[in-house]
Every structure is written in structure tokens, then in C-alpha cells.
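Final paragraph of the annual report: two paired records, presented back to back.
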Amino acid sequence: MAPLGGLPRPIDGAWWPRSYDLLAELPPLLAGLPPAWGHINSVTVNGAEWSATPGRMLVSNQVVRLRRILAASAPHTVVLLAPGRGRWDLLVVPPNTTEEAAEPLLASATGGHV
């Protein structure tokens, strides 16, 4: 868990999906994660932009719970949970962002490693 305090939870990386269709975009994201993160069993997206989704989906023969919330804090994030491994918060670069505008966002979220 992140320490208690006034600071928001740190961003662990960035994701630049091609659309707001979570069912289409999630499998490639999960396939590209570091193996050390383990099996992600829960994904929470923040925002009204995402298309409606079922409560769960099958990704690589594993069930992943899906949640979409509307919260004022961190509107462009996705939260990934892996039991016994941890939680990772990713900055979501909006799909319609130009490459020129996306590069600095990706670099800042990944500590300069785009």
C-alpha cells in the first residue's frame, strides 16, 4: 500500500491505447507487462470515456475483473492488481493524442525511459 499522506499514489508507468474500447485494448496491455508483475486479476479504469464493459473478461485463459469508476482524482489512470504481487497505477495517454504530445507524457510517467 502507498503510505498515508496528502501525496497521490505514484504512477508506475504509462499506457497509450489506440481506443477507449477496453475489451480490445486490455489484452495487448496485459501481454506486454513485465512477468514479475504476475497475473493481473483486476483492472479499474477511471473515467467516462471508456466504453461499457462486462464485469469480467477472459484474457490469455485467465479471468480479469473489470471496473469503471468516475472519480475526480486521477481521471486518466488505470489500476492493475495482482494478488500477492501488488498494485500498479498507469497513466493513460488518451488515444487521440498526437505523438508529439504523447512523448513527454510517456517520458514523465516512465522516468524518461520511453
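The closing record of the year follows.
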Amino acid sequence: MAEGRSNAAIAQTLVVSAGTVEKHVAAVFDKLGLPASHDANRRVLAVLRYLHG
């Protein structure tokens, strides 16, 4: 995600299913406390947290 890849691209790179990637991405959002929101993009927020420690 930090490289800007889609779930499909991540799945292809790791040779796993897109569903597996979706489950792991959801787990990352949960661990970071990023609930679903219409006002914010959780992928961007997760990467920002990753970059800023």
C-alpha cells in the first residue's frame, strides 16, 4: 500500500488471492484504528501513519 499499489497488484506480486490481500488490508486498518469513512481515504491515512512512525 505504501508504494501506491492496488489490492490486485499486491496480490499478483505476492502470488496470493485478492481476497487474501483485502483481509490483510482490513486488519491493518483495524490495528491502526481507521474506521470506514466517507470523508477520508483509509489507504492514504494508513500510509501517512506508516511514514510518520
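Residues 34 and 42 are 6 Å apart (CA to CA). This concludes the annual technical report; the extension proposal builds directly on these records.
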